[in-house]
Amino acid sequence: MTMNKNEILEKCKYYCDWKQDYSYIVSIFNFDKETIAPRGANEESDKALARIQQDIFKVLKSDDYINYVKEAYEKRNEFDEAHRRLFEFQYKEYIRNINISPELQYENSLLLGKSYSDWLNAKEKGDYNLYEPTFRKVVEMSRKLIELRDNKFATYYDMLLDDFEPGNNEVILDKFFSELKEGILPIIKKINASKQPRKDFLSYEVPIPLQERMSEFLLKFNGFDTNCGVLSTTEHPFTDFPSEHDIRVTTHYYLDMFTSNIYSVIHEGGHAIFGQNIPHELFALGLGDFITSAEHETISRFYENYIGRNKNYVYHLYNKTNEICGDIFKDVSFDEFYKGINIAEPSLIRTESDELTYCIHILIRYELEKDLINGKISTQGLNLEWNRKYKEYLGVEPKNDSEGILQDVHWTGAAFGYFPSYALGNAYGAMILNKMKEDIDFDKALLDGDLEKIKNWLKDKVFSIAPLKDPNEWIKAITGKDFSTKDYINYLHEKFSKLYKF
Amino acid sequence: MTMNKNEILEKCKYYCDWKQDYSYIVSIFNFDKETIAPRGANEESDKALARIQQDIFKVLKSDDYINYVKEAYEKRNEFDEAHRRLFEFQYKEYIRNINISPELQYENSLLLGKSYSDWLNAKEKGDYNLYEPTFRKVVEMSRKLIELRDNKFATYYDMLLDDFEPGNNEVILDKFFSELKEGILPIIKKINASKQPRKDFLSYEVPIPLQERMSEFLLKFNGFDTNCGVLSTTEHPFTDFPSEHDIRVTTHYYLDMFTSNIYSVIHEGGHAIFGQNIPHELFALGLGDFITSAEHETISRFYENYIGRNKNYVYHLYNKTNEICGDIFKDVSFDEFYKGINIAEPSLIRTESDELTYCIHILIRYELEKDLINGKISTQGLNLEWNRKYKEYLGVEPKNDSEGILQDVHWTGAAFGYFPSYALGNAYGAMILNKMKEDIDFDKALLDGDLEKIKNWLKDKVFSIAPLKDPNEWIKAITGKDFSTKDYINYLHEKFSKLYKF
Questions:
Q1: B20 in Cβ contact with B286 (< 8 Å)
Q2: Starting at the edge strand that comes first in sequence, how are the strands of the sheet with B246-251 ordered?
Q3: What is the structure's pLDDT at B86?
Q4: Which DSSP helix (H) or strand (E) runs through B229?
């Protein structure tokens, strides 16, 4: 059935509202499951989730929806940029789903539900082999879903990269990671040969209620709108975007690792601030959902590192920590605090790792997931391969799989292709930082505690256009330059040579 | 289309599973809204909830579902007791919905969402007039929904009573409440003329983390299964039953009113223990949803009062409180503690009120909601009428509407007809208590801290048959007697004459 422009806009609005309502409900159900739901109900909640996701999927496979998507895509040039982009996304999604039946989609949902429970259980016991049988099925299912698609890509993994970061592929990322490796490993070597800063106080015990006050302070200080968001706790911190005025940050408190919460909150808060500052008209079209993971990680890691580990920011952190914690850190000078927080030291846990070695953690995951999805390696013994790479690249080795292959949630949910986003985000962020410094006095804004100034610049130049651009176009639009790792490597070199005096 | 027995069973299973999945999702969304969701998203969440409820409603109005319900109801005598009861409920629900359109249902959902937000806001400001315009619409909508039904009842309110407590009506309840009034008011009078126990320690400050430990202890002690349940905080404590293995209790912490949390947790925990001990085969048919509110309040108030305020139970409470709170209550003897906890004193807040005056709070609500729904009084000035009744019956008067008409959430959600359940529950509970004492040594079980023994008796004699019986049949099946207020009034008289020595 042919539709005119108005009919298309009407259907578009109907389906955007419909999607917003249902994705709000599904997000909350998921969020609840990952934060407070009792374990005893896992089977019931997986089943409920699989059903609602299947019912949603059936709508996406309905004649009415598909007719609208095809018509809108065909006539996309008659519409404004935002609608055009939405129609392109919707068409891409339609193509992706063509050969996937609602039954298969249901099966996949159930599998991912079980995968999450089995992973949590295995992680608690530190034993990958408890999870491996389920994980194998997750990988098989991912490959099966790829095979059902109209494959115009060089490799299976390329297809997933196109989902996460349109415009990227293995060739580009191999080069990207090899530049990172060449840039970062020599710095690590130099640091290992240098005098190490004091770090004992990083494991001083800080009672959870005090850490909670710290979280509250940081979210507000950085510009998170608490009237339109929530902070909860979870095993593995994440940010959810259930609805325009409901954006949720999570953290995890460790009694003897107070910086873990601090940098989780700053990182996740960065995601949330990004989400809270998408122009309403783009949000209403659901374009917020199409911001890529690297675009998102750019901002979260921008807040975590370029802001959060900057000396002038750490100054506020130091004062506030002392204000809240009383005497706990009375024997720690600001200089020690700053250097301790910026320690660069090969370690096992990605989320706790420092700014410098972080990308090596990602590199390891990239190499493994690429081979896994391309069918070059299997899930069996993958924990040992993981440990081998940690030994090779970082010189450290996990004692059990909880601090090894089971530490991250991503693969559990079949989010293969997500990890590179973190490294790309770091590199995008360095380019954005240099551009920002042309416009505003970044260090002074931090010293003044004027995070609003920084947020407003980001909102104007970075957030507002993210839903409309693929990552490479986005970076070019912001900085005027093509993407490169140069700014990032320079930043690391400069920062750490100063800190470690080499 | 005619269906045979197997076809009916197959459809029955399909729709039970479907209902379970969707009601799980909707429950969690509601639970989230009432516990942590940010206010800024109220409009979005009301809209999402109204949509999913409408979509569920559309299924209930579909030819396929209605055909099944009619066939199943017609052939109900060919099935076992549980199926027969389910088919009767489903048929009753179908009849109730005949003249209600999905559009009206959507409008009602949106209105109740707004009602909740507006109530919260007005409650915070202590001003009923801020809420009255919305509340008026809620009452109007309730009356409209009643008018659309096939009214075989004497009054509007009778129809709602039949929803909540089948078999009850105004005539029965007028008599019930007048017996309560006659039984209770003289005891209150005698108490007012007696020496009052010490009560200063009831407002000693207890830090929230200590109160949280108390909650944990009490839930476990009473027999709540934490692997299949959750404790959260909210403005107005309630219990939710999202799924068979996911039953949720909420509480509210006040720094200077530690017993508020204790009795909220015991009360809500009672609801939850009931829910967690429904036979699986009845739960699977969704019959748990049809336990009446009075049946539920029987158990929650049984735990709160007959157990929770019993001297032998308070003995454990006293010891645990001292263990957790250190020196806070060091100047309070056990006797003072027990008497303080059992103080009977006219007050303003129903949920904080004592065991004796409680039913008078309910009486006031009953009189008001009956007249409101029957169209005899309007929402305008209802706060003043509320205050007048408090003055008349209890001799106390609210300073503002937060401690007056705005204190409870029930009317906000159009749950008119619910309040009598609390009073009925008290009276049912007294009959059950006497029956239980014939079988087990109740006081000794409490002294031994053997709550398991009590729970098992309840599970066997009370919980297991609740989904299959209307309240009056239920009480008769448990106790062998017809319902009367005698046991309850005797219990109150005996307990309070001993406490206050009259």
A1: yes
A2: B229-233, B246-251, B239-243
A3: 98
A4: strand B229-233
How would residue A497 be classed by pLDDT, with cut points 50, 70 and 90? very high
> Considering chain A, what is the average pLDDT of its residues?
96
Q: How many CB atoms lie within 10 A of CB A391?
A: 12
Closest in A52, A243, A244 to B25, CB measured: A52
Global pTM? 0.95
**Cβ–Cβ of B51/A22 closer than 8 Å?**
yes
All residues of chain A having their beta carbon less than 8 Å from the beta carbon of residue B31 are 32
B239 or A152: which carries more pLDDT confidence? Answer: B239
Residues of A in contact with B243 (CB under 8 A): 41, 44-45, 48
Question: At CA B93, angle to CA B87 and CA B95, rounded to 5?
Answer: 105
Record: contact A52-B229, CB cut-off 8 A: no
pLDDT attached to residue A359: 96
- Residues in B closer than 8 angstroms to A227, CB to CB, are 38-40
Question: Residue A373: which pLDDT band, with cuts at 50, 70 and 90?
Answer: very high
Total residue count of chain B as it appears in this document: 502
Q: Would you state the pLDDT for residue B286? A: 94
For residue A198, what are its two tokens? 């004091």
pLDDT in tens, B432-464: 999 999 999 999 999 999 999 999 999 999 999
Alpha helices, DSSP H, located in A165-231: 170-192, 208-222
Q: A281 in the Ramachandran plot: left (φ > 0), alpha (ψ -120 to 50) or beta?
A: alpha
The answer to whether residue B52 neighbours chain A at the CB level (below 8 Å) is yes
Residue A361: both structure tokens together: 């953690």
- Collapsing DSSP states into helix, strand and coil, what is residue B184? helix
Instruction: Name, in order, each residue with C-beta under 8 angstroms of B237's C-beta and a sequence gap of 6 or more.
Output: B249, B250, B251, B252, B264, B267, B268, B351
B40/A232 touch (CB, cutoff 8 Å), yes or no: no
Do the chains contact at B44 and A228, CB–CB below 8 Å? Answer: no
pLDDT band with cut points at 50, 70 and 90 for residue A1: confident
- Does the pLDDT of residue A150 top 80, yes or no? no
pLDDT at B236: 87
A233's enclosing H/E stretch is: strand A229-233
- DSSP category for residue B402: G
Measured between CB atoms, which of A22, A41, A245 is closest to B243? A41
Work out the angle at residue A120's Cα, subtended by the Cα atoms of residues A116 and A124, and round it to the nearest 5 degrees.
170
In this complex, which of B48, B228, B244 lies closest to A25 when CB atoms are compared?
B48
In angstroms, the separation between the Cα of residue A231 and the nearest Cα of chain B is 9
B45, B46, B109, B228: best mutation site toward chain A, by most A Cβ within 10 Å?
B45
For chain B, give the percent of residues with pLDDT over 70.
100
Cross-strand bridge partners of residue A230? A248
Close Cβ partners of A497 (under 8 Å, ≥ 6 residues apart)? A187, A190
* Residues of chain A with C-beta less than 8 angstroms from the C-beta of B245: 38, 40-41, 43-44
Give me the percent of chain B exceeding a pLDDT of 90: 97
Partner residue opposite B209 with nearest CB, options A43, A209, A227 = A209
pLDDT level of residue A152 (50, 70, 90 thresholds): confident
Please write the tens of the pLDDT for every residue from B158-194: 999 998 899 899 999 999 999 999 999 999 999 999 9
CB pairs under 8 A between A and B: 115
Q: Which two tokens stand for residue A438?
A: 């042309």
Q: What CA–CA distance (Å, rounded) separates B380 from B395? A: 23
Residue A392 at interface with chain B, using a CB cutoff of 8 Å: no
Class of domain A170-500: mainly alpha
Residues present in chain A in total:
502
Under 8 Å between Cβ of B256 and B205: yes
Residues of chain B with CATH 1.10.1370.30: 170-500
Active-site positions of A read: 268
A41 CB neighbours in chain B (<8 A) are 228, 242-246
